[in-house]
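Saturday, quiet lab. Running sequence design on the structure tokens for the scaffold JK sent over.
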């Protein structure tokens, strides 16, 4: 099917077209044409980021939240990004199987994406997939990403609500605690509360909460869950809705949307510059010569990088 037909079908709410278009975008095939033609038709989707170390229960939580959204007749798009399995061509099997039970429901669109082979990280592809799901008309778009603070998953920062999941026994939790998490999470979920050690995490978070209370007028709530048994999910759902209301009431939502567009533009610039430059350098072995001259101490990496960028800009200007 041609791109024009697919975008036309997407505008009519066709899931198959959405899936096809995301594949095109993932392979950076006609990305510009697709995005240009659909961008103005984005609907009012609410972006929910769910992040945390591998195995903390993000997919399980997403799965249960989907039920809550669906019971309100809301449509949901899920983008699961999994940089931990770069060779499997996408997300871990567990996600697929667990989320599969929703696959016959027309109000749910689920897509997993790997991070392999993307110049300039994951941001452009993820942004584009979000655009497709927004045009499709999803009321909620959930983005599941692994880890915090890696550049390729920074996209989650631009979600309207970021849910950071912690759990006892994952070493990362302690690391995350140190890394200024109050700025990352809008809501903290301590999952696997059927296990020992949860109280310790909750107490740690409460201390951080008190510290941050002095600085801002929003204090990220803590929700304790046992996601596998559907416990605490109702509370999490209400907490998300409360944060959503907070964003709208304080006009923060619009600001966030604009920040997201800013990020989108910058990531496209990065991608274009990087792919242009890389192509040119590789086409005439130029990079090898430059490596050689740095190796021989004739010059240094910064000077070379600047030279390449300036040449590139000059060429683009001429064209
Ligand atoms: N004990 C316990 N296990 C859970 C809970 N929630 C999820 N799990 C299990 O933790 C494992 C990893 O969950 P998953 O949702 O795939 O984690 P993700 O990698 O963060 O997406 C799975 O085996 C889940 O069944 C919970 O509340 N308690
Ligand atoms: Mg997962």
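Result came back. Writing it out in full:
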């Amino acid at each position: 099917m041609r791109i024009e037909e697919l975008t036309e079908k997407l505008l009519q709410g066709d899931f198959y077209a959405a899936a096809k278009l995301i594949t095109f975008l993932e392979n950076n095939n006609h990305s510009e044409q697709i995005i240009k033609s659909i961008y103005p038709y984005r609907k009012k989707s609410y972006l929910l980021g769910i992040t945390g170390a591998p195995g903390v229960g993000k997919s399980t939580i997403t799965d249960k939240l989907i039920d809550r959204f669906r019971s309100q007749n809301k449509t949901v798009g899920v983008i699961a990004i999994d940089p931990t399995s770069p060779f499997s061509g996408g997300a871990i099997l567990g996600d697929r199987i667990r989320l599969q039970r929703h696959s016959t429901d027309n109000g749910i669109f689920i897509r997993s994406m790997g991070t392999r082979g993307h110049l300039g990280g994951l941001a452009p592809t993820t942004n584009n997939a979000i655009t497709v799901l927004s045009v499709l008309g999803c009321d909620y778009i959930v983005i599941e990403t692994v880890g915090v603070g890696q550049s390729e998953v920074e996209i989650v920062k631009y979600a309207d609500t970021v849910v950071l999941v912690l759990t006892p026994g994952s070493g990362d939790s302690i690391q995350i605690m140190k890394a200024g998490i109050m700025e990352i999470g809008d809501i903290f979920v301590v999952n696997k509360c059927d296990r020992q050690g949860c109280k310790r995490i909750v107490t740690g978070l409460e201390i951080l909460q008190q510290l941050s209370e002095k600085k801002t007028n929003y204090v990220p709530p803590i929700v304790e869950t046992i996601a596998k048994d559907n416990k605490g999910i109702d509370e999490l759902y209400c907490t998300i809705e409360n944060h959503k209301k907070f964003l709208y009431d304080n006009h923060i939502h619009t600001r966030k949307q604009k920040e997201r567009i800013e990020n989108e533009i910058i990531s496209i610039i990065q991608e274009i510059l990087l792919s242009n430059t890389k192509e040119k350098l590789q086409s005439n072995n130029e990079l090898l010569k430059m490596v050689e001259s740095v190796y021989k101490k004739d010059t240094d990496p910064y000077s070379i990088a600047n030279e390449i960028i300036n040449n590139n800009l000059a060429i683009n200007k001429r064209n």
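Notes for JK: Residues 85-94 have pLDDT under 50 and may be disordered. Residues 58-59, 95, 144 surround magnesium ion (ligand 2) (CB under 6 Å). Ask whether to fix the surface positions before the next round.
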